[in-house]
């Protein structure tokens, strides 16, 4: 719609946090009608969503299906959760091959794929799932990976503010021919509690900082090693140094949408990502697989600690 693209001022996001049963802000969703959650192969008619999900209190998202399975297995141990004898964890979304969904007591572990479009779809469906289930006081976490800026690879960065590729703290969504802007605000209390839950005995550093969220892994993040590149190494370094000086500690591809949607929905949330490399030193991720696996467990350790403290589990 060329010539018809007004920028709408930021929405009045829900200022109040969700309290009581999960609400959704879409009057078109009628609980008396069937609502198909297509990408996770569930519906409020084909499944008893209340029975399955009403007790959910924490939803943990991450890009990769196998990481989120491992996280679910980790939570079985951490929560000392009793699986029915002879049974293993089951991917509740097995009827679709788009995302995985595991439930361990009050914790859901969900994959979101790569990038904002993929995260956006699963976010809508998980929110509707919790609405149909009547879940209440639910928190959301993203446990991911990222490229670090001036920090030791393997460092865990907890996001204080998510910004886009040109440092704007809101997500733009083209809707009905308009560019709508949604502020990407994260809960500062949850951030502080998560940072405080790291201990000097941890074998890794946990820090806080701004997270840049881009729409691309290569040129969007100023890499020199994509299939295209129309800038020089000096341009890349000038860009990375500029954003580093503005407080950006890591770069990934979902935090902006995650923060904006959680804020819009009034859900307390946090983004916790490990850094896989220092982008001031290079672009390629060539760390051995076993080391990378261990690094990816670090955000999980921090979030598990937080969840256990909220549940009163020592
Ligand atoms: O490790 P995850 O959670 O997928 O996150 C990061 O890794 C992917 C790129 O390799 C992007 O999705 C980025 O945000
Ligand atoms: O550099 C990186 C590493 C992981 N994920 C990203 O988006 N960028």
TrEMBL record:
GO annotation terms (biological process): nucleotide catabolic process; uridine catabolic process
Signal peptide region: none
InterPro entries tied to this protein: Nucleoside_phosphorylase_d (IPR000845), Nucleoside_phosphorylase_sf (IPR035994), Uridine_phosphorylase_euk (IPR010059)
UniProt GO molecular function: uridine phosphorylase activity
UniProt: phosphate binding residues: 98, 142-145
Binding site for substrate: 221, 223
Domain of life, per lineage: Eukaryota
Gene3D superfamilies recorded: Nucleoside phosphorylase domain
Recorded GO CC terms: cytosol
Domain called Nucleoside phosphorylase: residue spans: 57-308
Residues that span the membrane, as ranges: none
Family under the similarity heading: Belongs to the PNP/UDP phosphorylase family.
Name this polypeptide is given: Nucleoside phosphorylase domain-containing protein
Organism: Patella caerulea
